[in-house]
Design brief:
The protein has four helices and 13 strands. By secondary structure, it is α+β, with helices and mostly antiparallel strands. The radius of gyration is 43 Å and the shape is elongated.
């Protein structure tokens, strides 16, 4: 038709050849780019450092490198305690008993535990003191009392802070009271009497300290006046008075109480003039507390091998109930027995928290 453009076979063949050449060039370009990409990836994979390898990939394949995440500043390990914390800890046994730390202080006129308070329904003695004696005139029993080896024993011990911070922000005044009784509960032949009750009121001035001594932390100094008596008439009357200083130290779960004393003489009315020979001039107590357990070892040292060793163990039984075990050996397990040697073992329960 006129005006129409007619393509000849030669022109068609020439166009197809041109298209093939363009396609071949495109394929060569793509293959070259793929090969280059493979080489770049291989180069990046050979980098050992993670951050540098990631930056290589980002640079070779068109992404901007990302700044590495900031490394948190190093902090001191929690276990790296300061030197003064290595030998003591807040809320320790000694701190709770004597208000030594701010978090332990409970103010004035609130009853607190003092010594351990317990009931031992069964206490066995290897050698009951059936004939109590003393060098004081008319203070020795002439006839045996007929005591059983097995009896009950109980102790109640409380204290009350009556004033605090008497000198600046230190110096507390306490009043303490301890009552210990031995009861011939199973001795029906003599009507099951309470054979001995010891009363011990104390007035104590307590000073908080904070000095390192041979790996221990010296926490307090107590200055006290103590009176102990059994409130009985002759020939069973026994009593004495003491002034003492108590040094309280701590190290971890351990507490060490060192208490030297000076007896205050009673003149001609002395019920037991030789009591110093048996009860000595002080005592030492080591206490270990952990997991609700309190283990205590008390030693008193008199003349010529006299004295007393007492071991106490308070331990959890069920919630709100703690068992109590006590072993003593020597003189002075009670005041009437100050010059009598025996070994006793008692088991029972703790009445008040002692930890």
């Amino acid at each position: 038709m006129e005006g129409d453009h007619v393509t000849t076979p030669a022109q068609t063949a020439a166009r197809r050849g041109s298209d093939r050449a363009l396609l071949g060039a495109a394929l060569l370009c793509v293959c070259g780019q793929a090969a280059a990409a493979d080489d770049a990836a291989a180069a990046c994979r050979s980098i050992a450092d993670d951050a540098q390898r990631l930056a290589c990939y980002d640079t070779r394949f068109g992404q901007a490198p990302q700044a590495p995440a900031p490394v948190p500043a190093a902090t001191e390990p929690a276990a790296a305690a300061r030197p003064e914390e290595a030998t003591t800890r807040p809320g320790s046994w000694l701190a709770r008993l004597w208000d030594l730390d701010p978090e332990s202080r409970r103010g004035t006129f609130e009853l607190r535990p003092h010594q351990a308070s317990y009931v031992l329904p069964v206490r066995y003695s290897t050698h009951p003191n059936s004939r109590p004696s003393s060098p004081a005139p008319n203070h020795s029993v002439s006839e045996p009392l007929g005591l059983d080896h097995t009896e009950a024993k109980f102790q109640l011990s409380l204290k009350l802070k009556v004033a605090e911070n008497l000198i600046g922000d230190n110096g507390d005044l306490w009043f303490g009271y301890t009552q210990q009784s031995s009861w011939q509960l199973y001795n029906r032949s003599i009507s099951s009497p309470v054979r001995e009750t010891n009363h011990e009121p104390e007035l104590i001035f307590s000073w908080r300290t904070g000095v390192d001594v041979l790996g221990w932390r010296w926490r307090l100094l107590n200055l006290g006046l103590a009176h102990q008596s059994n409130g009985r008439g002759q020939p069973l009357s026994r009593s004495w008075n003491r002034a003492y200083a108590m040094f309280g130290l701590e190290r971890g779960d351990y507490a060490l109480l060192v208490r030297p004393w000076k007896r205050l003489r009673e003149g001609s009315n002395d019920d037991n003039p030789d009591i110093d020979r048996y009860l000595g001039s002080g005592d030492v107590r080591l206490v270990y507390t952990r997991g609700g357990h309190v283990l205590s070892a008390l030693g008193r040292f008199g003349d010529g091998g006299r004295g007393l060793l007492q071991l106490d163990w308070a331990f959890p039984v069920v919630p709100r109930l703690n068992g109590y075990l006590q072993l003593t050996h020597g003189h002075g397990e009670s005041l009437i027995d100050y010059n009598h040697r025996q070994t006793t073992l008692g088991v029972g329960i703790l009445l008040l928290p002692w930890q």
